[in-house]
Structures are given as structure tokens and as C-alpha cells.
Write a structure and sequence with these properties.
Layout (H helix, E strand, L loop, with lengths): L1 E4 L1 H4 L13 H12 L5 H4 L2 H5 L5 H9 L2 E3 L5 H23 L9 H6 L5 H23 L9 H18 L3 E2 L4 H4 L7 E10 L2 E11 L5 E11 H9 L18 E3 L1 H4 L9 E2 L5 E5 L2 H26 L2 H8 L17 H9 L4 H13 L10 H15 L3
Helix pairs in contact: 2-5, 6-8, 9-13, 11-15, 14-15, 16-17
């Protein structure tokens, strides 16, 4: 049985979209199934290429499935979940994630097929798909808390697990900045801010646990960094007035990392999106709490720790942010900000003019995420950087 096929979309194209565009939405779903190990043996041959992002989701669909998604492509659990979810809810979820970037041609299928087949967009969709899968598994397995634990006890368990990492990186409670960087405590929320000083800047770590009406406990861990040398360039060095900065304005963060960024593609810790789009880990029972806290502590040591070291130098920050392509960086959110070129200039990136070209192309893409009201500022910024870095 065929669940979906790119052929269904070809006849509806009223635009100049390429044939491959018909494979984007289906390809993203099947690529996600593959990375979650919910497919048949044939598709597992593509697992390494998908993990390394050497193939696009659309190309994967055409290469591995001849453009068709069928029952032959899934294993038993993938079949059960797809029968429950794909026809009833997937289209609505896809449209909700990307509605802000549809072409608005008046042709519904063409609009949805206009979404770029990028790994950045795949990561955005994945948060919703992860949540649907884990909710479905919890209902299937009748997973629930006998009695929902107190948030204070959950928070204490998280801190105990994270303490070796936090001590090694010098994180201490930051009550001064806490009120401005996080919401106030409530019966359904406990969270605190921690700060670590490094030479030339600061890292902040925000740890929050919440209870939900769905009888789950969620955990989010957000990192913010300020590398002063880059932050000063962003604020002061002749850039367009994106936010009307002055010399007295506070220095901006130079990196902001939510869990979906630094745990991207983790095979064991499955990051979800809540109703507001924030990324988190949801624990649907006592075993989920114990397993999640243990794995998170390990990932802080092996993934987050080395990443913080990179974010503490201009060259390291440049290596994380100014990747090729830019949209594949874990720090990428949209093209209409000041951070990419300011980081590259501070680090002396020899590809600065290539980055200007790439940002200009991203900013000109009508499907690029972000507020287009900043497009003139982006173009002005690019002109200034080109003038400063073009050999005379």
C-alpha cells in the first residue's frame, strides 16, 4: 500500500517549482522515520548518509523509494505509527511549522511544496514529529506517573546529575540576572539560572522543569554565551541600526543554544517542541526521568562541554556559526541578523566575501525563515562588510 507519492503533487504545480520539490514533505517524514530506526532494512542502507547530511531528504526519497512512500518502507512500529498519524495529522503539523514561509500562490499544494528542502527546515519539523511519536508510544504502552512527582524533587535530581559538569565549568547560581532571563517560578515551573566566567566573556545555563496537563514532566536546558570581543563588534562597529543600539546598550549574547540545537540528531535523547515551540525533553514516567537525567549528564560532558569551549573564542565561535552552508550551523536561525558577518570579521575568516554572497542569497529567498522587515538592514550590513574586506 502506498501512503504517499511525489507523483500526486506533480499535476498540481501551478508554479515553476522543480520536480524535486514534490519530494520535500514526504522525504522529510521518511528521513525522520529512518533516523528514528522505524524503517525496513532497505532504507537503513541510507542511514549513514542521512546522519552525515550528505543527501537531501527529497533526493533520499527519490533514490531510496522511487518517490513513493509505502508499507514496504517501514518496520512494524513504523507501520503502526504511520497508520495512526500520517494521513490524519501530518499535513496539519507540516503546515503549522512552515505556514509563515508558504509562497501564497493560491494553490495549496504548490505553496506547501515551495518549502526549501534544507536540513534546517528538517530540524524544525523534527521537534513536532518527535512529540507525536513519543505521545503515541506513551498511550500505546500505558506509560504514566503513579503520582506526579513534585517539581522540586525532579529539579533536585537533575542538579545532582549535572553537578559534576557544572562544577567543572564553574557554573554558579546567578540570582542577579535570573529575573530578566527566565520566567517567575509557579506551581507548574521550577527554574534557575547559572553563570560561568571565562576569559573575555560569560556563559549562562538555564535549567527549567515543568509539569504539564498531559501528566508529564519536562526538562529544558538553554545555553547563552557572550564573547565580549564579538559582542562589542556586533553592537558598535559601524553596523546598521537593527535595534537602535547605542554605546550604552548592553552587550548582546553571541550564541544562544536550545536543546534542539546542541542535541540535534541525538539517537537516544529525543527533543520535542511544546505548544509554544520551545524545545524540551518530556518525561512520561519514572523510568523516563531516570534514563533522561543520566543521558543528559553524559551529553553535557561529551557534547556541551566541548561546545562551550568553542564558543569562548572568536575562532571557535566562527567555526560553529560560519559553516558551509550557513543554514546547517546549529546557531543558524535566519539570515536577517548581524551575528554571522560580525563573528567572521572578529575571527578574521578568510571566506568573509563568500559569506556575504551566501547571506545575500539566503536573504533574497522568500522562503527563508525570519522577519523580512530586517532585509534592508541585512543588505546594508553586507555592503559595509564587503567595503571593509575587498582588497584595494
Amino acid at each position: 500500500m502506498i501512503f504517499d507519492s511525489a507523483d500526486y503533487y506533480f499535476i498540481d504545480f501551478q508554479t515553476d517549482l522543480p520536480k524535486e520539490a514534490a519530494g520535500t514533505r514526504i522525504g522529510m517524514y521518511v528521513a525522520w522515520l529512518t533516523l528514528r530506526r522505524l524503517v525496513g532494512e532497505g532504507l537503513n542502507d541510507y542511514l549513514d548518509d542521512l546522519r552525515a547530511r550528505r543527501i537531501s531528504c527529497a533526493d533520499f526519497l527519490f533514490d531510496a523509494c522511487d518517490g513513493k512512500f509505502s508499507t514496504d518502507d517501514v518496520n512494524e512500529e513504523g507501520m503502526a505509527f504511520t497508520e495512526h498519524y500520517y494521513r490524519e495529522q501530518f499535513d496539519n503539523d507540516y503546515d503549522a511549522v512552515f505556514a509563515g514561509e508558504f509562497s501564497r500562490t493560491g494553490h495549496e499544494l504548490d505553496d506547501s511544496c515551495s518549502i526549501a528542502c534544507s536540513w534546517h527546515n528538517f530540524d524544525r519539523l523534527t521537534l513536532t514529529l518527535n512529540r507525536r511519536l513519543l505521545d503515541w508510544r506513551a498511550r500505546r504502552d500505558h506509560v504514566e506517573w503513579p503520582v506526579l512527582p513534585t517539581l522540586d524533587s525532579v529539579y533536585a535530581a537533575v542538579l545532582r546529575a549535572l553537578r559534576p559538569f557544572m562544577q567543572s565549568k564553574g557554573f554558579v547560581h546567578d540570582p542577579v540576572n535570573e529575573p530578566t532571563m527566565t520566567d517567575a517560578p509557579s506551581p507548574s515551573r521550577v527554574g534557575h539560572l547559572y553563570c560561568s566566567d571565562f576569559s573575555g566573556g560569560k556563559h549562562w545555563l538555564l535549567v527549567v522543569v515543568r509539569s504539564t496537563p498531559q501528566n508529564t514532566v519536562t526538562l529544558s536546558l538553554t545555553v547563552a554565551s557572550r564573547l565580549d570581543a564579538v559582542a562589542e563588534r556586533i553592537r558598535d562597529h559601524g553596523l546598521p541600526e537593527y535595534f537602535n543600539d547605542t554605546a550604552d546598550s548592553p552587550l548582546p549574547y553571541t550564541a544562544l543554544l536550545r536543546m534542539a540545537h546542541w542535541l540535534r540528531a541525538d539517537p537516544d535523547l529525543i527533543i520535542e517542541a511544546d505548544d509554544d515551540g520551545a524545545s524540551l525533553l518530556a518525561m512520561r514516567g519514572p523510568q523516563g526521568l531516570a534514563r533522561t537525567v543520566l543521558l543528559l549528564a553524559q551529553r553535557c560532558e561529551t557534547v556541551l562541554g566541548p561546545l562551550l569551549d568553542q564558543l569562548a573564542t572568536a575562532q571557535g565561535l566562527d567555526a560553529v556559526r560560519c559553516t558551509r552552508p550557513l543554514s546547517e550551523s546549529i546557531l543558524y536561525t535566519e539570515p536577517f541578523n548581524r551575528f554571522v558577518l560580525s563573528t567572521a570579521e572578529a575571527a578574521g575568516n578568510p571566506r568573509i566575501l563568500e559569506l556575504c554572497d551566501e547571506l545575500e542569497a539566503l536573504g533574497s529567498d522568500l522562503q527563508a525563515p525570519g522577519s523580512r522587515m530586517f532585509y534592508p538592514n541585512l543588505m546594508a550590513h553586507i555592503r559595509l562588510v564587503r567595503e571593509r574586506n575587498t582588497p584595494r
